[in-house]
Amino acid sequence: MTMQGDAYLKCIDPQCGLEYPIKSTNVQCTEGHLLDVKYKNKPSTDLKEVFYKRRNSEGSIFNESGVWRFRELLNFCQIDTENLEECSKYLVSLDGAEGRQSKPYQMSKAAEFIGISTKNLWLQPEGYNPSGSFKDNGMVTAVTHAKMVGAKKIVCASTGNTSASAGMFAANEGINCDVYIPSGQIAPGKLSQAYQFGAQILQVDGNFDDALKQSLDDAQNHEGYTVNSINPFRIEGQKTIPFRALEYLNWESPDWIVYPGGALGNTSSCGKALMELYEWGWIKKIPRIAVINSDGASTLSDLYNGKFENEELRWNKGKPNMELISRYYDHLDKEGIRPKTKATAIQIGRPANILKGLRALEFTNGVATTVSDSEMLDGMSVVGLNGFDCEMASGASVVGIKKLIGEEIIKKDDVVVGILTGRQKDAMLPVEYHQNPNNLFAIPPKN
Ligand SMILES: [Zn+2]
């Protein structure tokens, strides 16, 4: 009982609105706009009970998986989702490990540091995914689509988390994976997981943008399948991050969901998840999204808050001021301003998903702000004092919440979910932090 034609691709620009069949591998419409995966059928809220019951997996890896447990809400394969055999034929999974350990936790020391009651603060570590970051949520769905269209290899440009996740799922599926990097600009250690999973590294003369361009050309001309975050199927899997948070809160919306801001794939997917859940009658209240940029890579915060040319950039019902964005990028080029933060996961000057991110902020009445590197290190460290490991960029969620409470944008009795996006990738960061007694949470070694 398949639902033929339920899922399709649609351009995000409401004035354009071009549609494509679900098996299309376009990541943009012919006018160059990003695409959304769309569903014609409205999933019944009875599924809440089904999802809850699947927590007892009864031997199914697709129930164990924190992504595929919600498969009816991202059913772009259009399969009869009760049939396990059919699931196995289509759905990619690392034996159910993606998203399996992800749920919101209460962390009392982080709450005390932030100045919020422990019961109102939830932090959700995504670093305990099999490759160590939130990327596995969206990569598992992108590679599922790659398998659906019979791709022979997957292709990405990456300097870290994306290549680790892509390489891992490609290896598990027995398909090839090409990773494009700007030659001489990436520390080999950052690619250690990609090497370990057998990905082919390709060095490109130029910068990251050149590497991305070449990876997209490769995808187009050599039957590669691109898995960078402009791939709309990445966004589908990443919707399960808020799904798991909401399910844990009995589908009662928190007041805020807070993310570190880099390429804005997380912001985009959270926004899409909330738009769909609201439209489908699954939630009554729309949580507000807060995006926390680094001071040194603050494109969204600058534009959204009117710090460039005094104009606050908005989605504006699908008519954002594209010229303003272009002028901002020209300004960065002209002044030689490069994104600069030790939190490399969010060291991004041109967020690929900025338009979907703006749409998410408009729908949720969201906010954007920035924090410093030293603040992020404090955030990372206080999470550690609760027994959880996270990378520096994830610390942005913690100190971002603290900053927004200080500014009375987040109220003290608001319920807040902060996403901790990845696990520690740089072993020396905590060592250096704790060796310096001036740091807030430092516990220096003794002789
Ligand atoms: Zn379009």
What does this structure look like?
The protein is of the alpha/beta class and 447 residues long. It folds into three domains: 84 residues; 231 residues, Rossmann fold (3-Layer(aba) Sandwich); 72 residues, Rossmann fold, CATH 3.40.50. The protein has 17 helices and twelve strands. Strands 4-12-9-10-11 form a five-stranded parallel sheet, sandwiched between helices. Helix 11 links the parallel strand 9 and strand 10. Helix 5 crosses helix 9. It is globular and about 60 Å long. The termini are far apart. 49% of the residues are buried. The structure holds zinc ion. Zinc ion binds next to loops.
Mean pLDDT: 95
CATH 2nd-level architecture of the largest domain? 3-Layer(aba) Sandwich
Helical proportion, percent range: 25-40%
Distance between the termini: 69 Å
Largest sheet: 5 strands, parallel
Shape: globular
**What small molecules does the structure contain?**
zinc ion
Major sheet: arrangement of strands: 4-12-9-10-11
**Highest CATH level, the class of the largest domain:** Alpha Beta
Task: Quickly give the structural class.
Answer: alpha/beta
As an assembly, this protein is single chain
Indicate the radius of gyration in whole angstroms: 21 Å
Strands, count: 12
Please mark out the parts with pLDDT under 50 across 5 or more consecutive residues, or reply none: none
Give the helix tally.
17
Order of helices and strands: EEEHHHHEHEHEHEHEHHEHEHHHEHHEH
Strand content: 5-15%
* Number of structurally distinct domains: 3
